[in-house]
Amino acid sequence: MSKYTTGEIAKLCNVTVRTVQYYDTRGILIPSQLSEGGRRLYSQEDLKKMKIICFLRDMGFSINSISQLLQEKNPLDVISILLDQQEQEIRQELEQHQLKLDTIEEIKREIKGDRQFSLESICDIALVMKNKNQLKKLRVLMIAVCVIMDLIEIGTAVLWWQTGMWWPFAVGMCVAVILGIWISVYYFNRVAYICPHCHQAFKPKLIKAISAYHTPRTRKLTCSNCGHTGFCVEVYKDALQNNDKPND
User: Fold this and answer.
1) Helix, strand or coil, per DSSP, at residue 231
2) What does residue 60 show for φ and ψ, rounded to 5 degrees?
3) Which of 41, 101, 228, 246 could form a disulfide with 197 if both were Cys (CB 3.0 to 4.6 A apart)?
4) Is 183 helix (H, G, I), strand (E, B) or coil?
5) What is the pTM for the complete model shown?
6) Can you tell me whether residue 137 is helix, strand or coil?
């Protein structure tokens, strides 16, 4: 069976030696063997695990989230859904880029043919460029609202501290609470979650969704279809394909 040193596994996964050593100290990639000289040796299974960790890091998962995910009873079920989702996103991006290339080539042919330039062709390009991932837009909106809430809270708190006027802070807190409730309802009404156990989409209760431990793309929830509790993958509700209508 193949054995890899720290340097070899770092090279195969395109990371630094320090990164591999850091994952060891955090307990998410412990070498399966030590040589007589005390060198870390990694097995083929360790290499597979390292590739999964690198994938999750690229997906935006924190070290703590990866550690918790790998402790799940069936972590590969969650990872499998993430892979399917990533594959679908890449395929959609490829289709969009191909459509852009086809449109550009058509415009170039019209220009070279000395025919009247078509404004409709430009509209086609603009339409394609607007076709962005809806979930990303939703997350950006939520972040923007949260930043506004923070600015209101900090700004009115500073004003209270400097002038002694408390009422702007009270009003600001009320506005921040209203914004928080609105963006939470708006966000969770537009997302659903895929259970890694039964692979069905469902919508959790608002309070449970807000209070659940989460990563950038998953939340630890109890599936309303099969009762499984674990990391469920977040998706844009209207973008669900090959799944039943989300259950409340």
Assistant:
1) strand
2) 100, 10
3) 228
4) helix
5) 0.65
6) helix
Report residue 168 as tokens: 């702007």
Sheet with 218-222: strands ordered across? 201-202, 191-194, 229-236, 218-222
Residuewise pLDDT in 10s, the chain (248 residues): 678 899 999 999 999 999 999 999 988 998 888 887 778 899 999 999 999 999 888 888 888 888 888 888 888 888 888 888 888 888 988 988 887 787 777 767 766 765 555 554 454 444 334 444 677 888 899 999 999 999 999 999 999 999 988 999 999 999 999 999 999 999 999 888 888 888 888 999 999 999 999 888 889 999 999 999 999 888 887 655 444 445 65
Q: Which of 241, 233, 231, 229 has the alpha carbon at shortest distance from 194?
A: 233
Query: 18-52: b or e for each residue (b if 16 or more CB lie within 10 Å)?
Result: ebbeebeeeebbebeeeeeeeebbbbeebbebbeb
